[in-house]
Amino acid sequence: MTQHDTCSLNWFLERDIDMFLAEELRVNPSFSKWFARHAAPDIILLHPATQTRVSVPENGSETDVLATFQRSDGGLHRIWIENKISAGLMPQQLERYIDRANAEIARGDCDSCSVVLFAPAAHRLPTPTGVASLSFEAAAKAIASDATDARLRYRAELLSRAAAYATPARQAQNMIDHEPHIIDWWDRAHAMVAHEFDGYFAPPRTRYMREMFFAPRTPDLPSYLRVDCKLRRGEVDLAFKNIAHDALHRALNELDAAPGRLVENPKSTALRITGLPSVSFSSDPEGSEVKAAFAAVKELLDFWRCNRSLFDALAAETRLSR
Asked: CATH 3.40.1350 residue ranges in the chain?
């Protein structure tokens, strides 16, 4: 295989897989047939799909890919696809897919439906009855079966490379193989943090990250609390999970001035410090910009620790009221 036939991408988001499937199911009859045979083995479909859509919202949830096929008897069949690379499933996520599919049949929008979880083989996720599970690796093998087509060889390797992100260990190994400068950057940053903050932070769960977004921890961090450090944006959040903005606002009024400002997120309320220097992989990992971010995190956590009894009580009240 020549170099220009080879996929050299080494970093993937789920949106990349969404667009990959939307294209292949719509324009590649061979792959469309293979995919549908596993998703709907008892229905004869015509290929390729007549329509594919991505990020299809309904009632607060979203379908990654929705593919529509003509059936041999003239009806319509739809395949609802959830893609995962390394993230887990939300509670009842696939069950909601099944409910949406059944609702379409009941409305007469289509005649039959299938639900598919598409993920790397190493990323083992539970699937309810009625949901098919297909792996990136099996799909890559099916696409690569046409060895004469350079585009398909490229697409097959793309899926194989995406499968390398199924676990943190495989993500780290992929970076070691292809992006050693990222490994070096984080090694130096972690060494700086350990030295400058003298054991204040716990070792990171994921040591090497491709994005400037991670969650520093301390040994005593409770389950209701999370730290979001967004280095590129120059901001850090101390996020109180499932605690309403108004409740936290009232609690803070009882205390001396809190660091940062209170912001409301979809599933948390956070104290946020902004205006920090933006950090990228071109920044010095041992320099003042990175130190400033961790100093801001420490300021937020020290504030929480000084007032922990109040925040623990607020979290307990929230649990009891749910």
From this structure: 3-170
Topology of domain 179-321, CATH: Yope Regulator; Chain: A, (3.30.1460)
**Assigned token pair, 222:** 């409770």
Residues 6+ positions from 123 with CB-CB distance below 8 Å:
84, 85, 86, 166, 167
Give every CB contact of residue 75 below 8 A, 6+ residues apart in sequence: 110, 111, 112
User: What CATH architecture does domain 3-170 belong to?
Assistant: 3-Layer(aba) Sandwich (3.40)
pLDDT in tens, 216-273: 899 999 999 999 999 999 999 999 988 888 888 888 888 878 898 999 887 789 999 9
Cα 5 from Cα 273, distance rounded (Å): 47
| pLDDT, tens digit (0-9, with 9 covering 90-100), for 189-213 | 999 999 999 989 998 887 888 788 8
8 A C-beta contact, residue 260 and residue 300: yes
SS3 283: coil
On whether the pTM is more than 0.85, the answer is no
Cα(48)–Cα(51) distance, rounded to whole angstroms?
9
